[in-house]
Design goal:
The chain has 164 residues and is an all-alpha fold. The chain has one domain. Helix content is 55%, strand content 0%. It is built from 7 helices and no strands. Helix 2 packs across helix 5 (90-104), helix 5 packs antiparallel against helix 6 (107-115) and helix 6 (107-115) packs across helix 7. The longest helix is centred in the C-terminal third of the chain and has 20 residues, at 120-139. The protein starts with a helix and ends in a 25-residue tail after the last helix.
């Protein structure tokens, strides 16, 4: 459970709670994955249960693959907030936009989003992982769409997969 101290540290941005369930689920899973990896723990036990409960178990290996690629090959730091944060970072919004782009068949848009984080060779690897993730989430009726129009990406480089 989030303490006041946890949520007081959250930077601004679109409200996490204002997002569709599918977007909340993908952001939450990413936050759990990053937090566990930063603690040198496996994110699998909690994520296995959550993805199974959501009917999205086939999507989980693709999430792991995409996040491993981002964590090891990112050309800049990627702002992933703590699991209790009440706002969505520009990079978390871009992750949802990425999944949404693949779900809509907008492959050029998806590649552009990935190229903001990764060098060209890593983009080619991440495209397959992100595309498979998007397809598996769509199969589980977890279509992406950000509700808040203020999710436009801010300039500058935030602090690779950091927690505040």
């Amino acid at each position: 459970m989030a303490s006041d101290a946890d949520t007081d540290l959250c930077p601004g941005g679109p409200s996490f709670r204002a997002q569709r369930f599918a977007a909340q689920f993908a952001i939450w899973a990413t936050r759990i994955w990053v937090a566990a990896v930063k603690r040198h723990e496996s994110p699998s036990p909690m994520l296995d249960q959550a993805f199974a409960a959501a009917g999205a178990a086939p999507a989980l290996p693709h999430l792991h693959g995409l996040l491993r690629t981002l964590a090891t090959a990112a050309s800049r730091q990627i702002d992933i907030r703590c699991p209790n944060c009440t706002s969505v970072s520009p990079d978390e919004a871009a992750l949802i936009q990425l999944i949404d782009a693949f779900q809509r068949g907008a492959f050029g848009e998806a590649a552009m989003l990935l190229s903001d984080w990764l060098p060209p060779a890593a983009v080619r690897l991440a495209i397959d992982q992100a595309s498979a993730l998007a397809a598996a989430l769509a199969e589980a009726d977890l279509g992406m769409s950000m509700r808040d129009a203020s999710t436009a990406r801010a300039g500058g480089a935030p602090a690779a997969l950091r927690l505040h």
